[in-house]
Amino acid sequence: MIIRVKTSADVSSSEITPEHVYHSRREFMRLAGAGALALAAGPLASPVDAAQDALPNVVKSPLSTTDKPHTWEQITNYNNFYEFGTDKSDPAHNSAQFKPRPWTVKVDGLVNKPADYNIDDLIKMNQLEERIYRHRCVEAWSMVIPWVGVPLASILKKVEPTSKATYVEFTSVMRPAEMPGQRARNLPYPYLEGLRLDEAMHPLTLAVVGLYGKVLPNQNGAPFRIHIPWKYGFKSGKSIVRIRLTDKQPLNTWQAENAEEYGFYANVNPDVDHPRWSQKTERVIGQLFQKKTVMFNGYGDQVAQLYAGMDLRKFY
To answer: pLDDT per residue over 13-42, tens digit each?
Structure first.
């Protein structure tokens, strides 16, 4: 079988989800009916046993937004996770064979105490928090998601970053036998992402292990992902196996794929349009009308000081 490597120019409109799709009532009706479709899909919609996979001792976080969370069915059936396919429904349908246990996360690089963390030990050794965070995708759609996890800073502090460490690089798992998107080579894999160290250490940056009080579903990045609520969703690496501290800015996957469209920082900035669609408005999944996009996804009071003096149109 001949496998052709896609470039950004080859990606079809169904894969990039352009803004005009969201203006159609037909699309709205499809999204609004996500719950019914999920029930019909059965175990494919979420490879999690709700009775067995509840996380212990989860506390509510004061850092949560007051926005109403989306439903489990919406969150687990409308995803960007190219390792399982480029359509929004692909991750739910194609991830059932993925094995999130056993799992080890390596934390190394410019640290004094490199360590390998078993995901279940990591869960047991930390107080888990439920944080209701806004999630904004670069294709101009958004959700409100009740993630469960621990501050990424609590993990990084354990390994003691050296004075030379200024960036954090995240590497996602490479398992083409379980991830059909990797076999299709729709992106260069393994998926890489990165943050400045001060971004990674910010209290809002969450190391996610669960959703709605349960272990993280495969299609949402099981068993360990990152979420940075003031940035576009592609910055939040999924199914992470390595966290490396470095003194060089990592080249993230989308930046390597198309630097003219995707930068390193990826802060939500409605004044900077994507070359193929506007970022000034967004559609909340399940709602018909667009709403105005807010700078830093509404978290400006907490994070704007990280970028004081920077040109956020240039460092996009």
So the answer is: 334 344 333 333 444 444 444 444 443 333
**Closest C-alpha among 141, 267, 132, 140 to residue 206:** 132
At residue 202, what is the residue type? H
Mean pLDDT (the chain, rounded): 87
Single out the residue of 72, 70, 90 nearest to residue 80, CA to CA: 90
Taking the C-alpha atoms of residue 150 and residue 129, their distance in angstroms, rounded to an integer, is: 6
Rounded Cα distance between 145 and 277, Å, is 24
Q: How confident is the model at residue 52 (pLDDT cuts 50, 70, 90)?
A: low
261: Cβ contacts below 8 Å, ≥ 6 apart: 8, 254, 274, 275, 276
What tokens does 149 get? 């996890």
User: The pTM is what?
Assistant: 0.86
One-letter amino acid for residue 111 of the chain: V
Q: Is the dihedral of CA 146, 152, 153, 159 positive or negative?
A: positive
pLDDT tens digits for range 54-80: 999 899 999 999 999 999 999 999 999
Q: Where are the domains of the chain?
A: 12-307
- Going along the chain, which residue ranges are E strands? 58-60, 104-109, 115-118, 128-137, 141-151, 167-172, 192-196, 206-211, 214-215, 225-227, 240-246, 281-284, 290-292
Q: Starting at the earlier edge strand, list the strands of the sheet with 115-118.
A: 115-118, 104-109, 240-246, 167-172, 192-196
Q: Assign a CATH topology to domain 12-307.
A: Sulfite Oxidase; Chain A, domain 2 (3.90.420)
